[in-house]
Write a structure and sequence with these properties.
three-stranded mixed beta sheet, alpha+beta, GMP Synthetase, Chain A, domain 3
């Protein structure tokens, strides 16, 4: 169970990363949409797992690799945004959020019966 502090940091980072991807997203996914669906910070606030939803993309892993290659740049941009609220910007680990794909697959299975 996350603490109140973790929840506040999660929502702050999700909001600021969403703003960053709104501006920088066209560099990673031209004509597409990158949304930050969730951020989970460890209890020591040292690592943040960022879950991204990518649309429309055929090869999500290639886009994720491109984003992971520029993690230092994204962390720096995040530091400029939240530097006043946090002493140390957490290390960012990016993952593809495939919950929408799983929900769609379940829907198809349920409608098929």
């Amino acid at each position: 169970m996350d603490s109140v502090r973790q929840n506040k940091v999660n929502s702050l980072m999700q909001q600021e990363l969403a703003n960053i991807f709104l501006i920088e997203g066209r560099n990673y996914l031209p004509g597409g949409l990158i949304t930050v669906s969730a951020v989970r910070v460890t209890p020591d606030l040292g690592i943040a797992k960022v879950y991204l939803s990518l649309f429309p993309v055929k090869d999500k892993q290639a886009i994720l690799d491109k984003i992971k290659a520029t993690t230092h740049k994204l962390r720096g941009a995040l530091g400029m945004k939240i530097g006043k609220q946090m002493r140390v910007v957490p290390e960012l680990l990016f993952y593809v959020d495939d919950s929408l794909d799983r929900a769609e697959a379940i829907d198809k299975l349920l409608k098929g019966q």
